Amino acid sequence: MRSSLPIRPTKPKTTAGASTAKYKAPGSIPANPPAPTLPPPLLPNPNPEPTPEPTPNPEPTPNPRTDSDDRQIAIDLERSIPNETFEPRTSQAIDRSTPLRRSQVDSRLESGQVYEALALLDAEISSEFIRYLELGLELGDPAATSTTLADDSISIEAVQLAQAELLVAQNATGTVPAVVYVFAEIDRLSIIIVPPEGQPIYHSVDVDRETLAAATTSFQTALLNARLRRTNAHIVPARQLYDWLITPIRDDLTRLGIDTLVFSLDRGFRGLPIAALYDGERYLIEDFAVGLIPSISLVDFTPNNLSESPVLAMGSSEFVDLSALPAVPFEIEFITTLGRGRSFLNDEFTLNNVIEQRTDYPAPILHLATHAEFSAGELSNSYIQLWDRKLTLDRIRELRLNNPPVELMVLSACRTAIGSDDAELGFAGMAVKSGVKSALASLWYVSDAGTLSLMSQFYDAIHTAPTRGFALREAQLAMLRGEVTVQDGQLLTTRGLINVPANLNLESSDFSSPYYWAAFTMIGSPW
User: Fold this and answer.
1) CA dist., res. 253 & res. 261, Å (int)
2) Predicted structure pTM score
3) Domains (ranges, CATH) in the chain?
């Protein structure tokens, strides 16, 4: 049973039918709230080198390093955070959707037509992903990549059908989910809760989009910058964001018994590590399993238990022009020993072999331990690194992950360009684009030790947790609570001591900081 979370005062007013409420955001919060102790900072490499394209059929030279290199995390952070900070997003950078559609959503919310507003909003978000991910071309409708959905195609029944799917998932798993739409308007924030049954619930929060964007930027900066992490600088923006995004709806979530939150976030906020929002005493993940979807219309919520599912694990530890990932051989071998599975490393990790092995061994879980990146601009700028090539996001369907279907794809070493709307579209839409039902991926690179810790706990929990979303939550909680550490080069987990190869040189670590666990996000169906 979830523990009760202290709530700052908010008394929403409701109207008949779909519920609506207005919430006045607090003006300030304490500057020094209590917080968990963070690990020492990681020192960046001051001279990062650019990453050229790899050549086919490489003959790589092993690149040994210690865990302090953190998968070149210091270099990545310096690239992601020029001059120690982000440039705040402008409203133009955030809002590139159709102005007419947004005004229609706004007018319907103001008049209490929450179902109608939700249908419009879902259609607008869906068409945004369809355009960027070029889904219309794959669905045989080129026009869908360049135009928004027509008004006459918007159906309240589609939203109600999604609610019915949520109810099926609830009954099958024993969890109680809700989809939460976060719609950042120029002068206020709109939040819509979609429960499995009953009317959607609308809340209006008195915070403008620029202020929300600035807090999001501060939160990301505080987590990613090594020097800021040791000061607990993330606590203040994490608490402020909690006040805006969660406090207004917290009473509703408690009343409905919700334990799983699936967020559809507005443009500019999809890179928010929402599991690490903080109420002053507890992180959001301590009370809810959380995940991210592009929109209700683009996700299959049909539940499928993965407790007995085998894993096809593939990856690369050596690269020509990217930093080595020396923990990958142990990672893919270890996760396949936790259950049934097969593993393939380095020169066996090619496009042809992925297709061949999936045909011969159609495991519902595909684990890819390799570099992956979601970048600004065209889909071709984002990629998953195979042994002999970069498989760009516009060609990811070549993996044929929908035939036979993959229930869950895990990317254990990926990152998203923070502050890029296009990169966030690629990250949040990855499951849809690749054809898988769910994807587990990280917003930024985490150290070898941190990744091993999360993955070992996740694959252990997936055998007993009611859903894949709850399995991720259990893994994140184990790290937050200090139940997973590195001691004398060995990994101590809730299963006990795991003997790690000595050549990995894992440094003693405490993974309680959200930097280590909040990066990992379940995208798509959490069931």
Assistant:
1) 9
2) 0.82
3) 91-298 (no CATH), 311-524 (3.40.50)
